[in-house]
Design a protein that fits this description.
The chain has 876 residues and is an alpha+beta fold. The chain contains 18 helices and 44 strands. The protein has a ten-stranded antiparallel beta sheet with strand order 18-24-25-26-27-36-33-32-29-30, covered by helices on one side. Strands 19, 20, 21, 22, 23, 28, 31, 34 and 35 form a nine-stranded antiparallel beta sheet that branches. The longest helix is centred in the middle third of the chain and has 30 residues.
C-alpha cells in the first residue's frame, strides 16, 4: 500500500494590521524576515518558506532593508522564498473588481521582478470567495487555488476539487480543511508526537482523495520553526506509515494533480460558514470606512482614470507611479481584516487616514489634468468651464457642477451659443478670498475680475455630450436672465417624466412608475433594531425591539422645485432604545433624527436618496426597505464582472443547528453597486454608493432591505445568536469608535422598470449613477494661490473633444486606462446581463488587441460576451 505523503509547508500568515497597527506589524516583520532569510540560507534541509503570498510584505521589508534585495531575489528566483501573486490578501466580496485585478497586477509585477511569482490563488483567511475569481485567476496564468474558508461538507466531501466560476472557467482547488494554522503547534517530545501525528494527519487523510496531504506549519505572525528539518526527520522515524517532507505548495500541487482523478466540480461563490466562519454580515461593519472605500473605488475607476486617459491622449504625461501609490493605499485597506473593519479603533484610524491620503491624491491628480486640458482650450469668453464625460458613449441628463459665479444674472451656453438650462442649488460669497489669491504673472494683460464671486453648486441639463471626452461651456452675463434658483412650497410630492412620488401619512413614500403605470406603496421604510454583535458579525439581541419610521413623528417636510430638480426634505424623529439593556426592557425614549432628501432630476431614470442620521444611541442597526411586491426565489446583484442570482432564503437555514454550523447561515448578502428583484415585466433595483449589503425580507420575500449602518461595542464577543461559541476577535478590545456617534450619511437610488432585468439595463444605470460628469472652470481670475499659478499656454486643444465613442456597445465598461507598458489604452468590458449576450464595440473588435489581465499575454478575440465573461482590449 502506498504511503501517505505529508507535505509540511512552513509559512506565516502575516496580517499587516488587526488588533495591532501596521506600524507594530512592520517592526516585527523586519525581525521575522531577517530570520526567514538566514534560515533559508543557512539551515540544512529548510528548503522552502511561504511568505503569505503578499508582495507588500517584501516591499515593506526592502523599504527598511534595501541591502537585502539581492538575497531576496536569489531565494525568490530559486522558488524557495515564495511571494505573490497578491499585493495584499484582499477581500473578494465587497472590494470592486478593478481593485482585485490591480491587486494581482501590481503583486505579480513585483514578484516577477524579484524572480518568480507564486502562481496560486492562495487565500488562507479571506472571509469567503467570489464566484468569478476562477476566471480572474486564470487570466493571470493562475490555475491553482489554495484556501480555507467558504465551503461545507454538505457539497464537498474531500479537500481536492475543481472550482468553476460563474462564466464556466475552472481551476484546480485544494482546501485547508482545518485552517492555515493547523500544524502550527508541533510537540517536540517523542512521547507526545506520535499521538499528535496520528490524530492530526489522520484527520487530513480522512478528507483527502489522494495520498498527498497539505500540512501547514505556521499561524498568524508565526516565527520560523528553525528546527523543522529535525522535527520532520523525527516524524519519519516514529511514523512508518507515512512519509514526511518539507515542501513547497507548488510541488504539492504538482504531485496532487498527477494522482487526482474524477474530481468533483464545485460552482459559484464559496460563502458557507459550517466549518469556518465567513462572517457573512461583515459587509456593513464600520459603515463609515466601507463608504470611503466604495466612493474612492468608484471615483478612481469611473472618473479619474478615464479622464487621465483623455488628458494623455492630448499630450500630457500619464501619472502611473502616482496612481500606483493611490492603489497601494487602497490595497492596504482592502486586506481582509482592514476592509472588514474587524480591528482595534487605533487600527481603523490608520485605515481612515489612508483613505484620506488616497482621496486627496486622486482628487488633485484629476484636478491637475482637467486643468492641463482646459487651459489649452481657446475660449473667447471670461467665465468658462469644461464638462468631462468619463464614459465611452454620449450622455444626456442633469448633472451637478461646482462653479465660481458672478453676482450678475447670467445664462449658460454651449460653444454653439445654445442656452443650457441650469438651477442654482446653493452659493456662498467668496469674493475676498478668491480675489486676494489671484496672481497676474503679466500685469499688462487685462483680465476679467468679477465684483462679487460666489462658490455655487448648480445643476445643468446637457444633451448628447461627447463620449470619453469633454464639452466646453461658458457663462454669458445677461441682466435680463431670470434667477435660476430653487423655490420652496408646502407640497408633499415631486415628479419628473419617470416618476411621481408623494409622502404618505405613515411617513413612507408612494411611488408611481409613469412608464408602466404601476404604483408602489410603503416605500422608504426605515427600520431600526438592536445589534448585539461585534466587529465580525451582526447579531440581533435575544430580546430585540424593532422600530420603524411608520411609528415616527414627522417634524417637517420641505418641498423645493427648480427647472431641473424637485426634492423633498423630510425630517423624522424616531424614539429608540439608548442601549441593549433598554432594548431588552422595551424602553424606547431616546430621540433618533433622520433627515432624508428625496430628489428627482430632469431626464433621470432613478430616484435619489440622501439620508443623514444624528446618531447618539448604542449598539443598533438602521436599514431601509422597499416593498416591490415581486415575490421571487432569487435576488439579482452585481458581483465581480457580472451578475449573480442568490436564493432569497438559504436552505441550510433549516439544518444549521442540527449540523452544528460554526456560524448561522443568513441571507444577508454583498453586492457591488445594485440589487434587484424582477419578473418578466417588472424590475425594481436599489443602487448604492454606500454600504454594499442587502437582504430580501418580507413574508413573501419581496422587499429589498438595504443596510445603512450598524454599530457595536467590542471587537469580539462570545456566544452570539448568529455566531454561537467563542469570540472571533479580541473580547477585551473595546471599540467606541464603532458606535459611529454623530452624523452618519448614506446615498442610494431606486429604479423601477416595466420590463425584464436584462431589458432594464440596471448595470448601465448603476454605472451612470456612480460616474458623475466632472467639471473644471478655467478663468484668469482663478489663476493664483487658490490653485497654484500657471503661465499662459498655447491654445492647442479643440473646444470639444472625443477620444472614443462606443454608443452601440451593450457590454459594461469596467476600466479605461493607459496600459502599464505602452502609450496605448486599455478598455476592459464585461457582460452585465443574466441571459443575453453583450456586444463589444466594432472598433474594439476590428482594431483592438485582446489581452489577459496581465496586459501582456494575448487573449482570444470575440465580438460578444457570454454571461459573466470579461475581456481586456488594448487600443492604440
Amino acid at each position: 500500500m502506498t504511503k501517505t505523503k505529508v507535505h509540511v509547508i512552513p509559512h506565516s500568515h502575516w496580517d499587516r494590521e488587526w488588533y495591532f497597527t501596521s506600524s507594530r506589524s512592520t517592526v516585527y516583520l523586519i525581525k521575522h524576515m531577517k530570520e526567514v532569510l538566514s534560515t533559508l540560507e543557512e539551515k540544512a534541509g529548510f528548503h522552502f518558506y511561504l511568505m503569505d503570498a503578499q508582495t507588500s510584505l517584501i516591499e515593506d521589508y526592502l523599504n527598511y532593508c534595501p541591502e537585502d534585495e539581492a538575497r531576496i531575489k536569489k531565494l525568490v528566483s530559486e522558488k524557495r522564498l515564495l511571494t505573490g501573486p497578491w499585493y495584499t490578501q484582499t477581500d473578494q466580496l465587497v472590494i470592486s473588481q478593478e481593485s482585485v485585478v490591480r491587486n494581482l497586477l501590481y503583486g505579480t509585477r513585483f514578484s516577477d521582478q524579484l524572480g518568480h511569482t507564486f502562481k496560486m490563488g492562495y487565500v488562507p483567511d479571506a472571509f469567503g470567495q467570489g464566484a468569478n475569481m476562477p476566471q480572474i485567476y486564470k487570466s493571470f496564468g493562475i490555475e491553482r487555488f489554495l484556501f480555507w474558508r467558504g465551503v461545507a461538507d454538505n457539497r464537498l466531501k474531500q479537500t481536492e476539487f475543481v472550482w468553476e466560476g460563474s462564466d464556466g472557467t475552472q481551476v484546480m482547488a485544494v482546501q485547508m480543511p482545518f485552517g492555515y494554522y493547523y500544524g502550527g503547534n508541533i510537540p517536540e517530545a517523542i512521547e507526545d508526537t506520535k499521538t499528535y501525528l496520528t490524530d492530526m494527519i489522520g484527520a487530513l487523510e480522512d478528507k483527502a482523495s489522494t495520498k498527498h496531504v497539505y500540512f501547514p506549519n505556521g499561524f498568524d505572525q508565526a516565527p520560523v520553526r528553525k528546527n523543522l528539518p529535525e522535527l520532520v526527520e523525527m516524524f519519519n522515524q516514529i511514523d512508518k506509515e507515512r512519509s514526511y517532507v518539507i515542501n513547497s505548495p507548488e510541488i504539492f500541487f504538482d504531485e496532487v494533480e498527477s494522482d487526482a482523478s474524477q474530481l468533483p466540480i464545485i460552482t459559484g461563490e464559496l460563502t458557507e460558514g459550517k466549518h469556518s466562519r465567513i462572517h457573512k454580515s461583515i459587509f456593513s461593519t464600520r459603515a463609515d470606512l466601507k463608504q470611503k472605500n466604495n466612493q474612492l473605488e468608484n471615483y478612481l475607476t469611473n472618473c479619474v482614470e478615464p479622464i487621465l486617459t483623455i488628458s494623455h491622449s492630448l499630450g500630457n504625461v500619464y501619472p502611473h507611479k502616482q496612481l500606483e501609490e493611490i492603489w497601494k493605499l487602497m490595497f492596504e485597506n482592502a486586506a481582509h481584516d482592514s476592509i472588514g473593519g474587524c480591528n482595534s479603533d487605533e487600527t481603523n484610524q490608520d485605515v481612515m487616514f489612508r483613505y484620506k491620503v488616497a482621496h486627496d491624491k486622486a482628487k488633485n491628480l484629476l484636478d491637475l489634468h482637467m486643468r492641463l486640458v482646459s487651459e489649452r482650450i481657446p475660449y473667447q469668453q471670461d467665465l468658462n468651464f469644461t464638462l468631462f464625460n468619463p464614459l465611452p458613449y454620449q450622455r444626456s441628463g442633469t448633472f451637478k457642477v461646482t462653479l465660481y459665479i458672478p453676482e450678475e444674472s447670467f445664462t449658460i451656453k454651449d460653444m454653439n451659443g445654445q442656452d443650457i438650462p441650469y438651477t442654482i442649488l446653493d452659493k456662498a460669497d467668496v469674493t475676498e478670498y478668491v480675489l486676494n489669491q489671484t496672481i497676474q504673472l503679466d500685469p499688462s494683460k487685462d483680465i476679467y475680475l468679477p465684483k462679487k464671486i460666489y462658490l455655487a453648486n448648480l445643476l445643468i441639463s446637457v444633451q448628447n455630450t461627447t463620449g470619453l471626452g469633454y464639452t466646453s461651456y461658458y457663462l454669458d452675463l445677461d441682466k435680463e436672465a431670470p434667477k435660476q434658483e430653487l423655490l420652496t412650497s408646502f407640497k408633499r410630492s415631486i415628479e419628473n417624466d419617470f416618476y411621481k412620488v408623494s409622502l404618505a401619512d405613515n411617513n413612507t413614500l408612494t411611488i408611481t412608475d409613469k412608464q408602466s403605470g404601476r404604483t408602489f406603496v410603503d416605500q422608504m421604510l426605515f427600520v431600526e433594531n438592536g445589534d448585539d454583535g461585534d466587529s465580525y458579525n451582526y447579531s440581533p439581541p435575544r430580546n430585540d425591539l424593532f422600530i420603524t419610521s411608520k411609528e415616527s413623528e414627522c417634524l417637517s417636510v420641505k418641498h423645493e422645485v427648480g427647472k431641473l430638480e424637485e426634492r423633498l426634505t423630510i425630517k423624522l424623529k424616531m424614539l429608540v432604545p439608548y442601549n441593549l439593556k433598554d432594548r431588552a426592557a422595551g424602553i424606547n425614549d431616546h430621540p433618533f433624527i433622520i433627515d432624508v432628501h428625496v430628489s428627482l432630476r430632469k431626464d433621470e431614470a432613478w430616484l435619489r436618496f440622501d439620508a443623514k442620521v444624528d446618531n447618539h444611541v448604542l449598539s443598533h442597526r438602521l436599514t431601509v426597505q422597499f416593498d416591490t411586491k415581486l415575490a421571487h426565489q432569487f435576488s439579482t446583484a452585481d458581483q465581480l464582472f457580472g451578475v449573480i442570482n442568490r436564493p432569497v432564503r438559504l436552505p441550510e437555514m433549516d439544518v444549521w443547528e442540527k449540523e452544528k454550523w460554526h456560524e448561522t447561515p443568513i441571507s444577508i448578502e454583498p453586492m457591488q453597486s445594485f440589487v434587484a428583484l424582477h419578473q418578466e415585466e417588472q424590475t425594481v433595483a436599489v443602487l448604492t454608493e454606500g454600504v454594499r449589503e442587502y437582504e430580501i425580507v418580507g413574508e413573501n420575500y419581496d422587499t429589498i432591505q438595504l443596510t445603512l449602518f450598524r454599530t457595536f461595542s467590542h471587537m469580539g464577543k462570545t456566544d452570539l445568536l448568529y455566531r454561537p461559541g467563542r469570540a472571533s476577535g479580541e473580547t477585551i478590545v473595546e471599540t467606541p469608535d464603532a458606535q459611529l456617534l454623530g452624523e452618519v450619511s448614506s446615498s442610494f437610488a431606486l429604479v423601477y422598470k416595466g420590463c425584464s432585468f436584462d431589458e432594464a439595463e440596471i448595470a448601465k444605470l448603476a454605472k451612470a449613477y456612480l460616474s458623475p460628469m466632472q467639471a473644471y472652470q478655467f478663468s484668469d481670475f482663478l489663476n493664483g494661490r487658490l490653485i497654484y499659478a500657471f503661465r499662459d499656454e498655447e491654445k492647442t486643444n479643440p473646444l470639444t473633444y472625443q477620444l472614443a465613442n462606443f454608443d452601440e456597445m451593450t457590454a459594461g465598461v469596467s476600466a479605461i486606462k493607459k496600459t502599464e507598458d505602452s502609450d496605448h489604452y486599455l478598455i476592459r468590458v464585461f457582460n452585465p446581463y443574466l441571459n443575453q449576450l453583450a456586444t463589444i464595440a466594432q472598433q474594439l473588435v476590428d482594431y483592438g488587441q485582446f489581452v489577459q489581465l496581465d496586459e501582456q499575454t494575448p487573449d482570444q478575440l470575440v465580438s460578444q460576451l457570454t454571461a459573466n465573461q470579461f475581456k481586456s482590449i488594448i487600443l492604440s
